[in-house]
Structures are given as structure tokens and as C-alpha cells.
Amino acid sequence: MKTIKIVGVPEHFNLPWIQSIANGTFEKKGIHLQWQDIPEGTGKMCQMLRDGETDMAVILTEGIIKDIIAGNQSKIVQIYVESPLIWGIHVAAKSNYQTIADLENKKIAISRLGSGSQLMAYVNANNQQWDTKHLEFEIVNTIDGAVESLTNGESDYFMWERFMTKPLVDKGIFRRVGDCPTPWPCFVIAVRTEFLEENKEAVQSVLHGINAATRHFKEQPNVAETLANTYHQKLEDIQEWLTLTTWSQKSFTKNEITAIQNKLFDLQIIAKKSNFATLVETM
């Protein structure tokens, strides 16, 4: 039995992994897949890949591309979620901010440097035609840290996946003033290069297992109810989220990687572009 460590955010996108492990999908392939939830998000997972604390990660596209270019010895082996991630732009419920325009030059709560919450702040600023040189950040580590930071006035707004943050909006803790979808497929599966070179067949088996699960995930009886109960969401919110979410079983093409890098470069999220083979391992 081959042990493989994998990390991901504790969000609804990743229920296919949790179910597949519980169903013995990977054990039937001779793999003991150890899943670990990482509430701190992509910045933390990039560090875990760098430090060898995990073998694989289900991770935001923009974050891992930036980190591989910066020296993370990992490869993207597949797109996991094809559809964009819809980032809600949140303020404290009692704040005076009413629109996205009110947030120009205001302090942004982020989970970590290099996280999606930081990188998407640049995307949003570009969409609003703000000067990105003036973006100021407060590191809060987790969504709980963001609640404390915004409530105490230490930061002014926080970008996080819209549906996972909706319960905080419903409770009157946050108020959402807008959305900012990613201009690329949102989640990919990344593997440490050293581990991949030594265990390519095992990684392929993992991909085959998860692809079988995601291909038919929405066809499960009562899948919306299961998601709502597992992630403490309103059923109508999960039903909407399911209509907006598409999983993938494919790798990136060279053209897709070029387009994403061009966008990241234009946003000054990356200082240079890398070649396809450095970023992607075609499985």
C-alpha cells in the first residue's frame, strides 16, 4: 500500500475527495490517500509542497503558477475545477462601505502572502481600474481571523469564496458588496516534482480515481442536501453553487497556460513567465 499525502481547503469543491477516500476508491488501487484540510488556503499549501509536508495539493491555479515560477519544485498535473471561483468581496456588516468603489485604497485582509485572497485583490483592483501599487494587506491566516480583523477595524475588506462565506453574511457578521470571478479555471491538482518522478503510476491512479468521482458527482441522489449538511450551507445556496460549478478531468493545454500567464503578468502578479514544461506535467 502506497501512502500519499494530499491537502486542500475544507470546502464543498473537495467533497469528491472525502467521499472517494471513505468509499475505499484509492485503497482498491493500492493507495492509502491521507487527506488534510488546510483552512489557511493556497499560500499555506504552497509552503507545504515546498517543505515536503505534502505530496499533492488541490490548489488555486493562480497561486501555484505564481509559486512554481518563484521556485516551488512542483507540477500541475490536471485541472480539478474548470469553472471560475466566485470570490465574494466582504466588509464588516456595520461598516460604512456600501460599494466596491468605496474600497479603493482600503486595507485588505488576506490569509497569507501569495494566497488567492491576496492575488485576487489585484484582479479586482485591475477590474476597478485602481492603481495596484496602493494595495495594502493585513495577514489574518483564516476566515475566523478575517472576522476578527474586519470587526475590529484592523482591515476593511476580505475576499473569499462567496458561498462558503455566505453563512457569515446571513448571520450579519459580513456584508457582501460585490463579486469577482477568476478569469481562469479555479482549482488544479499539483504534485511535488520529486514525488511525481518517483511515483508517476501512483499519481495516475489517484487521478483516475478522483476523475471517476467528479465525472458523476452531480448525479448522486440528494447531493445538494449532503453538501448543505456537510458544509453548513443553506440548500438553495448549494443548489445555485452546483449550477455554477464544473469539475474537470483534463490537463491544461499550452494555449491555456499561456493565456493565464499573460493575464498574471499584466496584473504584475508574476514578474516573468515560464515555459509549459516547467509548470505542467502531462499525464
User: In angstroms, what separates the terminal alpha carbons?
Assistant: 22 Å
- For the biggest β-sheet, the strand order reads 2-1-3-10-4
Please state the structural category. Answer: alpha/beta
How much β-strand is present in the residues?
15-25%
Oligomer status: single chain
Count of the separate structural domains: 2
Secondary-structure element pattern, one letter each: EHEHEHEEEHEHEHEEHHHHHH
CATH topology description of the largest domain: D-Maltodextrin-Binding Protein, domain 2
Assign the CATH architecture of the largest domain. 3-Layer(aba) Sandwich
Low-confidence stretches: none
CATH superfamily of the largest domain: Periplasmic binding protein-like II
Instruction: Please give the share of residues in helix.
Output: 40-55%
Q: Give the integer mean of the pLDDT values.
A: 96
Nearest-angstrom radius of gyration?
18 Å
The main β sheet shows up as: 5 strands, mixed
**What is the β-strand count?**
10
The CATH class assignment of the largest domain is: Alpha Beta
Summary?
The protein is an alpha/beta fold and 283 residues long.
SSE blueprint:
Blueprint: E1 2-8, H1 15-22, E2 31-37, H2 42-51, E3 56-60, H3 61-69, E4 74-81, E5 86-92, E6 107-110, H4 116-127, E7 136-139, H5 143-151, E8 157-161, H6 162-170, E9 174-181, E10 187-192, H7 193-198, H8 200-215, H9 223-231, H10 235-244, H11 254-266, H12 276-279
Parallel strand pairs: 1-2, 1-3, 6-7, 6-8
Antiparallel strand pairs: 3-10, 4-10, 5-8, 5-9
Helix pairs in contact: 1-8, 9-10
